[in-house]
Amino acid sequence: MNATAESTVIRTRGLSKRFGETLAVEALDLAVARGEVYGFLGPNGSGKSTTLRMLCGLLRPSAGDIEVLGHRLPEEAEALKRRLGYMTQSFSLYRDLSVAENLAFLAAVHELPRREARKRREELLARYRLERFRDRLAGTLSGGERQRLALAGAVLHRPDLLLLDEPTSAVDPQSRRDFWESLFELADAGTSVLVSTHYMDEAERCTRLAILDRGRLVADDTPRALMAALPGRPLRVEVERPRAARRLLESAPGVREVAQIGAALRLLVDERATPEAIAERLKEAGVEARVTPETATLEDVFVAATRRQREPAS
């Protein structure tokens, strides 16, 4: 989807960041539309956190242009602060203050009028199921409770855009699920969301997704479109000796990737590696196998996109 100028909340052109000899982000072009839940997917070191910090004005880019909510960065970072919410992957509120005190402090930072701040605090305590913890020190909360408090703090001032840096990396699966429901509630209410993750199931829930690898954008589209455009196709190989079969198939013509999934193998192949050809190769080595086509997943897309990035030019 190409965002128009009127609907775009984030636009970057040639965005790069260098730390000494290390190029952390390279020539990144992004266009994020208003109302999207836009995802950044990538391994550690792919440039996700560095990009988010540049987008909220905490890091100065080495090259390129950034415009967020109509403000040019880093020149207009101060004007952007009141319209932006930012949640880091580590808990960044005050552990020695209570839940209610943390929210009161943030309301003061954002200069909310006292009556509005009190009303907003009570609203968020109820929305994020924190009422019974209001007088508990933040440092004593569980991972999921801290996450809900951090989100409440990030949206206290009703930002137009919310940036989240791997916000679910330290919580249980149920808390992750609840957190994502909260994100879609925010999006439905008009807040645009950009969230980085390394979880495939979370990435699949985004309305649009960018895959980053080694600081470069290697894919950008809806999850459904990315899976439909997968270069290659996945196959499932059911075999009694998967480790032996894997060694036989890793060098087979047309096989791009082999992964063991339980007692079976999952292959990413091109047109040369038909199910019949794979089965025949294994049979010639004395290995009986059942080979069937599989439906593409976002993990297949991720593997294919990052593999292209890492393969040497021919």
Automatic annotation (TrEMBL):
Protein name: ABC-2 type transport system ATP-binding protein
Family matches, as InterPro entries: AAA+_ATPase (IPR003593), ABC_transporter-like_ATP-bd (IPR003439), ABC_transporter-like_CS (IPR017871), ABC_transporter_ATP-binding (IPR050763), P-loop_NTPase (IPR027417)
Record carries keyword Iron-sulfur: no
Residue stretches making up the ABC transporter domain: 10-239
Family statement drawn from the similarity comment of this UniProt entry: Belongs to the ABC transporter superfamily.
CDD domains attached to this UniProt entry: ABC_DR_subfamily_A
Signal peptide: none
Matching Pfam families: ABC_tran
Originating species: Halomonas organivorans
Gene Ontology molecular-function annotations: ATP binding; ATP hydrolysis activity
Alphabetic keyword roster: ATP-binding, Nodulation, Nucleotide-binding, Transport
